[in-house]
Amino acid sequence: MEKIALTHLVLGELDTNCYIISDLEKRNCIVIDPGAEGEKVLHELEIKDLKLEAIINTHGHMDHIGGNEFLLKETGCKLYIHEDDKDMLQDPAKNLSVYSGNDVISPPATDILEDKQILEFGNIRLKIIHTPGHSPGSVSILLDKRLFSGDTLFKK
Ligand SMILES: [Zn+2]
């Protein structure tokens, strides 16, 4: 695991936690929840010389998907979300952005997440756990012993 690095960014007005998981040997990475400010995420990837393989959205709320469009357009990466939240990506009423006065519309998912799925990107190995509640398609992502839970667990 020592070649795997973790970067934490706090993005947007709602202070969304965004994580970059990178493989320092292969120089590739994935991004969890680019909630806003896609430019800031891309800048981080550029200064670290990392190729973005995929975005994983823990769920479909606007403050977790706002950077999808910019990053997909700039990098051509994949976009993963659970089946039960995939319609939220392109529906401002479902992703709640309609209430913010600034509609968020993400590109559609390229790949669908499933419970107990293992995803591998180079040396980055992730396990997907479906944890519905906050939204029907909320997932948690397990990296070694670290769990990324989106909004399933709120830190007060
Ligand atoms: Zn949420």
UniProtKB/TrEMBL annotation:
A Pfam family reported for this protein in Swiss-Prot or TrEMBL: Lactamase_B
Keyword entries, A-Z: Hydrolase, Metal-binding, Zinc
CDD domains given in the database record: metallo-hydrolase-like_MBL-fold
Domain Metallo-beta-lactamase: start-end pairs: 15-156
GO molecular function, one term: hydrolase activity
InterPro entries per UniProt: MBL_Glyoxalase_II, Metallo-B-lactamas, RibonucZ/Hydroxyglut_hydro
Gene3D superfamilies in alphabetical order: Ribonuclease Z/Hydroxyacylglutathione hydrolase-like
Cofactor(s) of this protein: Zn(2+)
Name recorded for this polypeptide: MBL fold metallo-hydrolase
Organism expressing this protein natively: Muiribacterium halophilum
Lineage start: Bacteria, Candidatus Muiribacteriota, Candidatus Muiribacteriia, Candidatus Muiribacteriales, Candidatus Muiribacteriaceae
